[in-house]
Structures are given as C-alpha cells and as structure tokens.
Amino acid sequence: MRALCWHGKGDVRVDTVPDPKIEHPRDAIIRITACAICGSDLHLFDGYQPTMESGDILGHENMGVVIELGSEVTNLKVGDRVVVPFTISCGQCWFCQKGLFSLCDRTNPNAEMAIKAMGHSPAGLFGFSHMLGGYSGGQAEYLRVPMADVGPIKVPDNLTDEQALFLSDIFPTGYMAAENAQIKDGDTVAVWGCGPVGQFAIRAARMMGAGRMIAIDEVPERLAMAEAGGAETIDFSKCDVYDELMVRTKGRGPDSCIDAVGCEAAGHGAVDAVMDKAKAAVGLATDRVHVLREAIFSCRKGGTISVPGVYVGMGDKLPIGAAMNKGLTFKMGQTHVQAYTQPLLKIIEAGKIDPSFVVTHTTSLEDAPEMYQKFRDKEDGVIKVVLRPGG
Ligand SMILES: NC(=O)c1ccc[n+]([C@@H]2O[C@H](COP(=O)([O-])OP(=O)(O)OC[C@H]3O[C@@H](n4cnc5c(N)ncnc54)[C@H](O)[C@@H]3O)[C@@H](O)[C@H]2O)c1
Ligand SMILES: [Zn+2]
Ligand SMILES: [Zn+2]
C-alpha cells in the first residue's frame, strides 16, 4: 500500500510498504477514506518527538471502511464506516474504567521507554513514536486498528467524512480543553493558538457558557476563523499579549487560559523565547514554553490553565512561583477521545456544530509531503488538511 512515512526531521515521503494484517483477535483493518494532518504531526515532522524511526507511518486522525475483523470484535461488521480515536485504549484497565482513555495502562508495548522518560507510561497512540507504542498511523491506504471493539464508532450515513473525521482527535481535544478550563457562565477565556485545536476550543468554550473568548495568534486567516467562531482576537506579533489582556480585562486577567500551541511556540524575539530556541537547538531543553509562561502571567488569580498543546520533554524557566502564589489550577493531557466520541457525535447530529468548517484543503495522499510543509509554514491559507488515500 501507499503510506506517508517519516524519514527524519523535515523529511516525510509517500512510500510503498506492506499492507497491515490482523495481528490480534481484537484488531480490525480499515480502508482509509479520509485522514488529516494534525499540529501534533508537525512536532514529529520538526523532530521534536524522540524515538521516531525512519519508515514510521504517520497519521492519527483516521476514518474508513472496515474490511477485516479479528475474531473478538463483535460490535463491528465488514463494510461499516467508522471513525477511529487517536488514543489506543483497552477499555478494561483501571484507567480506562475511569474514562481516562489516554492513560490506558495496557496499550503501550514499549512502556519501559515511556516510564524512563516520564515515570509512567500513557496509552499507545497511532503514528506517534516508539515511546508511545510504535503503532503505524493511518495516513495510508489501510490501517490496523488494535482494540477495535473499544475505539472506533460507526458514522451515520447522513454525515460526510469531513463532518465526522475530527471526532478522532481535534473536536474532542478542543472540547476537553474547554472542560479542563473549568468555565463558569459568563467567564472570559483566553485561547493561545488558532490552529484547529484552538478553533474547536473556542467553539466548545462558547457552548459551555463563556461570556468572552479572546483568541491569540498571528496568522490572519486563523484569527479570522476564530472571530467567525465568536472570539475577539489579539495578534501577538503586533503587541505584548499580557499588556493587551490586562487592558481588555481591566487588569484582572482572563478567568481561564487555554494553551493550544504547545512545544513549538513562536516568540518574536521575546528574551525567554530566544533562550528556549537556543537551548532546544543544543539539547539543553526540548520544549519552547513561551505560551505557558505568558498564560501563567496573564491568568487571573485563582484561575485555571488548560493545556491541550503537546509538550514532549523538558521545558525551562516555568514561573512556578507565579503559578503557586496566584493560586492557579492546571489541567492538561492527551485527550480521552473514547469518552467524547458518542456525546460529540450527538452534538454534530443535532446540528449544533459542523466540524467541517475547519477544513481548508482536501487533497490526495500523494500530496501529503507538500501539505506538511505548507501546513507548518502556514502557506496558501492552510488551516486543516484532509487527505483522501485512493481518492
Ligand atoms: N492534547 C491532545 O490530545 C492534542 C490533540 C491534538 C493536538 N494537540 C496539540 O495541540 C496543539 C495545537 O494543534 P493544532 O493542530 O491546532 O496545531 P497548529 O500548529 O495548526 O496550531 C498552532 C497555532 O499556534 C500559533 N502560535 C504559535 N506561537 C504562538 C504564540 N506565541 N502565541 C499564540 N499563538 C501561537 C500558530 O500560529 C498556530 O496557528 C499542538 O501542540 C498539538 O500537538 C494536542
Ligand atoms: Zn492530533
Ligand atoms: Zn486501558
């Protein structure tokens, strides 16, 4: 089959590789009809995520048609159209039983690598490094889906691929980010990053009763999309974000701050950001924590910081004193996707949101390398790319 493979920093290619096979009775094989490139893929593309190997197949936002089933998957049939959570979760362990699906204890065959780096291992993820399971992703013609009796959900016929696909990741991720922000009616919520995750966080915050959403980015079309979702905007390349947030909230600061940027934050010459970049370049730190610092400084006393943005390792100079003395609450994590797929499908079916609003480009799998570059460099107005293998 054809598949988008990682070959090193900035080097992804569509290669011909062996088709996946059923390896376990709980597996399914699906023929991918649509998959997407995520901001998390950019961290792999840019070489931030350790334990990638040449030839790894990327892609964790996947949907398609079931073509083969292991003997223990009884809730799906060949021919079913399904969307697949990016988190691989057993549904049975202590964590899965509590709905903490991204923390599943049983799906990372390389758990010892993760334990060395983090103390414990989270769940295995599709297409996301060997430390997180070494599972092949779905930017390909076919995908092996482990734990297929727990993860994939059937898609109603009346929804298009573009309306259902983002149940695999970014809609639940934006939604959980807003939940983690502990929004109360009328609250002011600041969202750093107007990529796809920020866009869904803005819309979820509104659904949860936020009075004001203030969206921060520098890319005009992304700020425009945030505005269309009901947010006020701040262009961080044109002003000091802390100063501007204080003006807009009369000095109190936003009640909740959502970091939907993560480890590759841009800093435009801010001293801390220049230091982060230099340290990351020589391996003294791995993450650029500029946005997290700004969020801690800006958040109102007693407020909440929600972090859907991905961090991979060590960040330097986090103002822990400010966070402690201001009494901030932190909530973060990879999304517990399986906990959100059914409820959010209902929200889509009720017409409360059409997730396809975020798609700017639909193209073939063969174009994926070019689209990775354009998505990273924010060229051609790319906000969200959907790939159609075989289409
Ligand atoms: N927690 C999860 O389960 C989960 C799931 C999906 C994605 N993510 C993560 O969420 C983050 C966003 O994903 P995305 O797909 O929207 O990515 P993206 O790369 O499209 O968006 C990131 C945005 O942040 C903006 N940005 C950069 N520096 C900034 C700064 N200093 N201030 C404000 N904005 C800044 C960029 O201009 C860009 O628009 C990534 O870190 C991704 O890995 C997490
Ligand atoms: Zn993702
Ligand atoms: Zn589990």
TrEMBL record:
Keywords: Metal-binding, Oxidoreductase, Zinc. Signal peptide: none annotated. SUPFAM superfamilies: GroES-like (SSF50129), NAD(P)-binding Rossmann-fold domains (SSF51735). It comes from the Bacteria. Residues 196-279 form the Alcohol dehydrogenase-like C-terminal domain. Residues 25-153 form the Alcohol dehydrogenase-like N-terminal domain. Its cofactor is Zn(2+). Belongs to the zinc-containing alcohol dehydrogenase family. PANTHER family: DEHYDROGENASE, ZINC-CONTAINING, PUTATIVE (AFU_ORTHOLOGUE AFUA_2G02810)-RELATED, ZINC-TYPE ALCOHOL DEHYDROGENASE-LIKE. This is Glutathione-dependent formaldehyde dehydrogenase.
